[in-house]
Amino acid sequence: MVEFDEVRQLIGEILQLGGRAQKFTPDTPLLGSIPEFDSMAVVTLINAVEERFDIMIADDEISAETFETVGKVYIFIRDKVIAGT
Questions:
Q1: Which domain holds residue 40?
Q2: Is-contact 9 18, C-beta < 8 A?
Q3: Is 58 exposed, middle or buried (0-12, 13-18, 19+ CB in 10 A)?
Q4: Chain segment 20-57, per-residue pLDDT in tens
Q5: DSSP secondary structure letter of residue 78
Q6: What pTM did the predictor assign?
Q7: Any bridge partners for residue 69, and if so which?
Q8: How distant, in Å, are the alpha carbons of 46, 57, 82 from that of 1?
Q9: What is the CATH number of the domain that holds 56?
Q10: Exposed/middle/buried for 7, CB within 10 Å: 0-12, 13-18, 19+?
Q11: Could you tell me which of 49, 29, 27, 31 has the C-alpha nearest to residue 39?
Q12: For residue range 5-23, what is the model confidence (pLDDT) as tens digits?
């Protein structure tokens, strides 16, 4: 099972946020709110998620809404892992 803390930590690692990521809650906004979270960071996060959780993310599954908040990223990853895809 995927834990919220695991996803929060991964986002912090990708964005090189240090301890700032520990303050993230499911409602913490990402896109447009964290300067480090740009288009390259999204691609890097997707690649890291695929590797860490052994899932494949198709281009048509990716939308701005998925990356709106830390919680939405977590739910997306959790649901992909549960579905086994």
A1: 4-83
A2: no
A3: exposed
A4: 999 999 999 999 899 999 999 999 999 999 999 999 99
A5: H
A6: 0.93
A7: 29
A8: 18, 18, 8
A9: 1.10.1200.10
A10: buried
A11: 31
A12: 999 999 999 999 989 999 9
